[in-house]
Write a structure and sequence with these properties.
By secondary structure, the protein is of the alpha+beta class. It folds into 2 domains: 33 residues; 132 residues, 2-Layer Sandwich (TATA-Binding Protein). It has 3 helices and 8 strands; from the N terminus they run H-E-E-E-E-H-E-E-E-E-H. Strands 3, 4, 5, 6, 7 and 8 form a 6-stranded antiparallel sheet that branches. A two-stranded antiparallel ribbon has the order 1-2. It is elongated, with a radius of gyration of 20 Å. The relative contact order is 0.19. About 4% of the residues have low confidence.
Length: 166
């Protein structure tokens, strides 16, 4: 009898977890439950973005090259820096669920929401016209792993600016 009760209690517990999971999946994104908080420190200063933490869910072109997990090459371009910057802004604007939240001369910050659960990633871009590169940082707000989403995002923008490299 005790074993039967314990089995029933376990089954009810699993059912409760399933219902809670489904409710979170359906209600969470509209309520912003998975959006996290905007980073406290943003911007580009002294040729660098703010350092990230030890989690593997971000990349930055200003992270040390020795940090293979987080370092990504800046986006190189040839020709007019203004044209490259406009091309980057157009590529961001064409990205589904992207919102540019801050614009300043040579600096741009955007947020990217995931399709299903509404997780938010933050990305920053800084134009270094003299070096003919655009520095990039892209980071997940929540969780530990991002399954290389942020690295692929920067690489997609690099590919979008490919015509600027000729």
């Amino acid at each position: 009898m005790k074993a039967r009760r314990a089995g029933r209690a376990a089954l009810l517990g699993l059912a409760g977890l399933a219902v809670a999971g489904i409710a979170a999946f359906l209600v969470g994104p509209p309520l912003g439950l998975f959006s996290g908080s905007r980073p406290a420190v943003t911007g580009f200063s002294n040729g660098r973005f703010a350092d990230g933490d030890s989690r593997p869910n971000w990349v930055s072109s200003t992270a040390p090259r020795s940090d293979a997990l987080h370092h990504i090459e800046p986006i190189a371009f040839k020709g007019d820096p203004g044209r490259a910057w406009v091309a980057l802004e157009a590529a961001i604007a064409a990205t589904p669920r992207a919102t540019i939240v801050e614009r300043a001369p040579g600096y741009l910050r955007a947020e990217f929401a995931s399709k299903t659960l509404g997780f938010i990633d933050d990305a920053e871009f800084a134009l270094d016209a003299a070096s003919r590169v655009i520095h990039a940082k892209s980071a997940a707000r929540l969780g530990i792993r991002d399954f290389a989403v942020n690295r692929r995002r920067v690489e997609a923008f690099r590919a979008a600016l490919e015509p600027q490299r000729d």
